[in-house]
Amino acid sequence: MFNLKPISHDSIETALAKAERYRLLNEPHEAESICHDILAIDPANREARISLVLALTDEIPQEPAAFNSALSAISNLESEYDRAYYSGIAWERRAKSYFDANGPGSTGYVHDWIVKALQFFEQAEHLRPTGNDDAILRWNTCVRFLERHKDLRPKTEEAPEPILSE
Is the pLDDT score of 166 beyond 50? Predict the structure, then answer.
């Protein structure tokens, strides 16, 4: 079996840039791997922790279980703002991924998960540093998503499915 090799502390900045580049190339597993390498030698590295969260949420469309991994990584973020904001990102990406997959009961789940994202973005808005409107931008994006997809409604209000066996 092969063993992982540690990277040097001097390479952290370039490794972070590579992780971002892999995310932009839609290769989240590669970005995730790089983040783990960075965190192995610098566990408190905020940029690597956040990049890991984003890489994991990028994986959600192909691997729904990545959502739980993202939530676990989010729990390791130090600031309350970061935990709220990135939780909102995770719920938003989960909802949109399920929407795109048109999964069973998707209208209810997608609506409820977008609302959950909105709750986290609202929490992050109250915790945000001065001049940082990222949570407001995500809030507005989610609201516009719901406005574009008026058929989405809370899971408890969904119309019953018709019986097709008759």
Answer: no
